[in-house]
Amino acid sequence: MRLTERLTSRHAGLLVIDLQDKLLQAIVDRDQVVAQAVGLIKGARLLGIPTWTTEQYPKGLGGTTAPVAACVGERFEKTSFQCLAAHRIVEELLSRPIQHVTLVGIEAHVCVAQTALELMDRGYRVQVAVDAVGSRRSLDRDIALRRLEQAGAVISTTDAILFEWTETADRPEFKAISALVKELDARASGA
Q: Is residue 4 part of a domain?
């Protein structure tokens, strides 16, 4: 895959990482992270993009936060920090023509970063939604994003990802995607 290749909905996947209430309590800008992740989940659903969700040790850390849980199906339990240790996710990826995976979730410098690196090692192109990932400290998040970009990950925003997935205003889903982006913008501006 070329570095300049656009990451459209063809051959795409979305991985939602560990957006659990107990973990979110300590995350900087957690409300934004959750809202943008939900926007990407909804956009992926509209465009037919497969989506997977992980939970880090849910017996001790609890389940996925309600706004995300309402939008996703099955959740894969894990104890490893990188998500591909949850073998069902690997099976899901291999059973589809997935070439690039967009990541959202927490923590950017732990589970998101380790998953991104593992995916890239396995030949996938990785995109990270900068406004839909978080850490307990801004510095950890910022350094993780820099590291991932240097390693070859695409760093983007929810808005850019949704429109890149959509590709054209002629697509039947465009109006719904555009309305979703407006809803996210209104929420971000406090309207």
A: no
